[in-house]
Amino acid sequence: HMADIYLSSVGRNSVLLLNIPPDRRGLIADADVARLKEFRQWIDANFSDDLVASADSASMSAALRPQSKVNAVVLSEDIRKGQRVETFVVEAWSDGAWNQVAEGTTIGNKRILMTDDDVVADSLRIRVTSTRNTPHVRPLKAYYVIKPDDLAAQETEFNVVGKSKADGAALVSDAGRKAMVAGFIYEPSKGQVPVFKYVAEVSTDGTAWKRVKTTGEFGNVFNNPIPQRVVFASPVKARWLRIVSIDDEPKATGKLELLTVK
């Protein structure tokens, strides 16, 4: 779970805030200390072996060790000159051609992009597709990251279903039948203000709604309006799910899909 938070915060040009309080002894709880040490080990193990052999800042390209297997690309801008990149794609040289393997919006101080599939390539490059001014992108780095177990499980255990519609401050999705709903994916609409703070509710009849405990916030969604995946602590039986915006000017925009247990 902390690895997921790391990729969603530090990996999206934000900061990591775990909010771990001391116990009645005035110390961090032993169990928390153990998890934090494991978390540090996960970061060190996955982001210590840069697969880039040489990089060229001017062309925003990097030569990898021959036939490297990559699934994570780390980018950063020289923010002393401002945050300028608005949209970009990452391409890999494989089979004699450049192929797109990832895309994103802002980069900023640090951005970690996980590719959908493992990429075997000799070179990588960044192609900036929209910028406010001349971009100043630092040399990229590339890694092969062992994904957290819960992330791997999320990719294999759930079906993605449901048609959504906006209803004032709420975005409602219908699974079509009762199912064990394990969470949802919220995809912001391009060019529209996304939902930031919200409450999530489920219903079996579309009339009576029950709140489901979630973080209640899509971190850094304004700078990086990419699909937001939320998994509940345990699945709930429902047909409908809705997220209700509780922002200062609540208005539901975007697309909402349900994650159901296979």
Overall description:
This protein has 262 residues and is mainly β. It has 3 domains: 45 residues, no CATH class; 96 residues, Jelly Rolls, CATH 2.60.120; 106 residues, Jelly Rolls (Sandwich). The protein is built from 3 helices and 13 strands; from the N terminus they run H-H-E-E-E-E-E-E-H-E-E-E-E-E-E-E. The strands form 2 sheets. Strands 7, 8, 9, 10, 11, 12 and 13 form a 7-stranded antiparallel β-sheet that branches. Strands 1, 2, 3, 4, 5 and 6 form a 6-stranded antiparallel β-sheet that branches. A hairpin with a 2-residue loop joins strand 3 and strand 4. The mean pLDDT is 89.
- Unreliable stretches (pLDDT < 50, length at least 5) are none
What oligomeric assembly is this protein in? single chain
Report the CATH superfamily of the largest domain: Galactose-binding domain-like
Q: Tell me the β content.
A: over 45%
The description of the largest β-sheet is:
7 strands, antiparallel
Shape: globular
**CA-atom Rg in angstroms:** 20 Å
E-strand count: 13
Estimate nothing, just give the exact number of structural domains: 3
Quickly give the CATH architecture of the largest domain: Sandwich
* CATH C-level category of the largest domain: Mainly Beta
And the CATH topology of the largest domain? Jelly Rolls
Number of helical regions: 3
Mean pLDDT: 89
Helix proportion range = 10-25%
Gap between N and C termini: 22 Å
Helix and strand topology:
Blueprint: H1 2-9, H2 30-46, E1 52-56, E2 61-75, E3 85-94, E4 97-104, E5 111-131, E6 141-143, H3 149-157, E7 158-161, E8 163-167, E9 170-187, E10 198-203, E11 210-212, E12 228-245, E13 255-261
Antiparallel strand pairs: 1-2, 2-5, 2-6, 3-4, 3-5, 7-13, 8-9, 9-12, 9-13, 10-11, 10-12
